[in-house]
């Protein structure tokens, strides 16, 4: 097992002993004698320093074999932040057009240095860069007015129920397998997508439509016998970049390795989907003929709906013979927006 533990420096040790919540999200402590890891603010009795390992991500503590403490629940989800960071984000949320400077952050009783460290660790960018990205995504959010709020789960304003359900999935590791699926929310002008990566291959990409995509996530988790962790892999970065280009109308094909296990019939249908060129559509009936079972358009529709990788396996390009849209797991509005994007080169 790889040891990614860091040395316990004095500042962190003092914060840990004082259970200082202002350090939550900056480091995690694994206790060798109990096999459990905690966030700094944990109220449980503090262990001896010599028995501690320090990690700068909760996934690293998990990978090193530590279990999350039941008391302080040290794992943070994609859109969860420690309370002190949340204070800053709330201020930003109230005035999204403002750029928060160091003195504004300090006025909220948050150390600008600590905040910088947090954003660097978590997003590999400065707080200022992050604010800029936020403003961009707020703008694109305004652009997609009409999207129902319950569908547009964005950033730190996510819905409690969705978050709780997702956390439950993450908290139930797969005991019988060491396969890990790294999941991460990616943002698009049509709303957040959840992306799952195993061994450098994309296994899941779904719009956040609460019920539907949690079910897909469960299916994928069972199919791959995987435990879930919240982690941004290199492939997530590449995918986010390519999605940005796709939504800007400058990318027509993706170069992302996929893993799409399924029945022989599903495989055939998904291959056919990938053969439909950008900007074109096919009828379910035509697809059935291509797969070699004319008349099986309903079965084709079902296999189409079982596709776990939205956009890259373009099930949105399949429509009814009559020309109406048929169904779409991500919602019909998104289906028509994707088709319009491919037709006109920009998101409406
Ligand atoms: Zn704890």
From TrEMBL:
<dbReference type="InterPro" id="IPR016221">
    <property type="entry name" value="Bifunct_regulatory_prot_Ada"/>
</dbReference>
<dbReference type="InterPro" id="IPR004026">
    <property type="entry name" value="Ada_DNA_repair_Zn-bd"/>
</dbReference>
<dbReference type="GO" id="GO:0006355">
    <property type="term" value="P:regulation of DNA-templated transcription"/>
</dbReference>
<dbReference type="InterPro" id="IPR001497">
    <property type="entry name" value="MethylDNA_cys_MeTrfase_AS"/>
</dbReference>
<protein>
    <recommendedName>
        <fullName>methylated-DNA--[protein]-cysteine S-methyltransferase</fullName>
        <ecNumber>2.1.1.63</ecNumber>
    </recommendedName>
</protein>
<keyword id="KW-0227">DNA damage</keyword>
<feature type="active site" description="Nucleophile; methyl group acceptor from methylphosphotriester">
    <location>
        <position position="38"/>
    </location>
</feature>
<dbReference type="GO" id="GO:0003908">
    <property type="term" value="F:methylated-DNA-[protein]-cysteine S-methyltransferase activity"/>
</dbReference>
<dbReference type="GO" id="GO:0008270">
    <property type="term" value="F:zinc ion binding"/>
</dbReference>
<keyword id="KW-0489">Methyltransferase</keyword>
<keyword id="KW-0808">Transferase</keyword>
<keyword id="KW-0479">Metal-binding</keyword>
<dbReference type="InterPro" id="IPR036217">
    <property type="entry name" value="MethylDNA_cys_MeTrfase_DNAb"/>
</dbReference>
<feature type="active site" description="Nucleophile; methyl group acceptor from either O6-methylguanine or O4-methylthymine">
    <location>
        <position position="315"/>
    </location>
</feature>
<dbReference type="GO" id="GO:0003677">
    <property type="term" value="F:DNA binding"/>
</dbReference>
<feature type="binding site">
    <location>
        <position position="34"/>
    </location>
    <ligand>
        <name>DNA</name>
    </ligand>
</feature>
<feature type="domain" description="Methylated-DNA-[protein]-cysteine S-methyltransferase DNA binding">
    <location>
        <begin position="264"/>
        <end position="343"/>
    </location>
</feature>
<feature type="binding site">
    <location>
        <position position="67"/>
    </location>
    <ligand>
        <name>DNA</name>
    </ligand>
</feature>
<feature type="domain" description="Ada DNA repair metal-binding">
    <location>
        <begin position="12"/>
        <end position="75"/>
    </location>
</feature>
<keyword id="KW-0862">Zinc</keyword>
<feature type="binding site">
    <location>
        <position position="38"/>
    </location>
    <ligand>
        <name>Zn(2+)</name>
    </ligand>
</feature>
<dbReference type="InterPro" id="IPR014048">
    <property type="entry name" value="MethylDNA_cys_MeTrfase_DNA-bd"/>
</dbReference>
<feature type="binding site">
    <location>
        <position position="45"/>
    </location>
    <ligand>
        <name>DNA</name>
    </ligand>
</feature>
<keyword id="KW-0234">DNA repair</keyword>
<feature type="binding site">
    <location>
        <position position="43"/>
    </location>
    <ligand>
        <name>DNA</name>
    </ligand>
</feature>
<dbReference type="InterPro" id="IPR036388">
    <property type="entry name" value="WH-like_DNA-bd_sf"/>
</dbReference>
<dbReference type="InterPro" id="IPR036631">
    <property type="entry name" value="MGMT_N_sf"/>
</dbReference>
<feature type="binding site">
    <location>
        <position position="72"/>
    </location>
    <ligand>
        <name>Zn(2+)</name>
    </ligand>
</feature>
<dbReference type="GO" id="GO:0006281">
    <property type="term" value="P:DNA repair"/>
</dbReference>
<dbReference type="Pfam" id="PF02805">
    <property type="entry name" value="Ada_Zn_binding"/>
</dbReference>
<keyword id="KW-0010">Activator</keyword>
<dbReference type="GO" id="GO:0032259">
    <property type="term" value="P:methylation"/>
</dbReference>
<feature type="binding site">
    <location>
        <position position="69"/>
    </location>
    <ligand>
        <name>Zn(2+)</name>
    </ligand>
</feature>
<comment type="similarity">
    <text>Belongs to the MGMT family.</text>
</comment>
<dbReference type="Pfam" id="PF01035">
    <property type="entry name" value="DNA_binding_1"/>
</dbReference>
<feature type="binding site">
    <location>
        <position position="42"/>
    </location>
    <ligand>
        <name>Zn(2+)</name>
    </ligand>
</feature>
<dbReference type="InterPro" id="IPR035451">
    <property type="entry name" value="Ada-like_dom_sf"/>
</dbReference>
């Amino acid at each position: 097992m790889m040891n990614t533990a860091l040395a316990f420096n004095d500042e962190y040790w003092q914060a840990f002993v004082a259970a200082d919540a202002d350090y939550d999200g900056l480091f995690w402590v694994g206790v060798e004698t109990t096999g459990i890891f905690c966030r700094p603010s944990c109220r449980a009795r503090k262990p001896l320093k010599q028995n501690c390992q320090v990690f700068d991500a909760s996934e690293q503590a998990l990978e090193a074999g530590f279990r999350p403490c039941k008391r302080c629940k040290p794992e943070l989800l994609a859109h969860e932040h420690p309370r002190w960071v949340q204070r800053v984000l709330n201020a930003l949320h109230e005035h999204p057009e403002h750029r928060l400077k160091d003195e504004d952050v300090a006025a909220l009783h948050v150390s600008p240095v600590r905040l910088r460290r947090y954003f660097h660790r978590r997003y590999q960018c400065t707080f200022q860069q992050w604010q800029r990205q936020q403003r961009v995504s707020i703008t694109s959010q305004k652009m997609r007015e009409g999207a129902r709020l319950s569908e547009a789960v964005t950033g730190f304003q996510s819905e409690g129920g969705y978050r709780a359900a997702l956390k439950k999935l993450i908290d139930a590791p797969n005991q019988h397998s060491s396969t890990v699926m790294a999941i991460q929310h990616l943002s698009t002008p049509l709303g957040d997508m959840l992306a799952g990566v195993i061994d450098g291959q994309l296994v899941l990409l779904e719009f956040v439509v609460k019920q539907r995509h949690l079910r897909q996530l469960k299916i994928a988790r069972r199919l791959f016998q995987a435990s879930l962790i919240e982690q941004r892999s290199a492939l997530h970065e590449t995918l986010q970049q390519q999605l940005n280009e796709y939504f800007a109308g400058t990318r027509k094909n993706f170069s992302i390795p996929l893993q799409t296990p399924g029945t022989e019939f599903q495989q055939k249908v998904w291959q056919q989907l990938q053969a439909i060129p950008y900007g074109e559509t096919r009828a379910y009936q035509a697809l059935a003929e291509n797969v070699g079972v004319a008349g099986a358009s309903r079965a084709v529709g079902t296999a189409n709906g079982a596709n776990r990788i939205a956009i890259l396996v373009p099930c949105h390009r399949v429509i009814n013979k009559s020309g109406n849209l048929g169904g779409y797991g991500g919602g019909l509005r998104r289906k028509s927006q994707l088709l319009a994007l491919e037709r006109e080169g920009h998101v409406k």
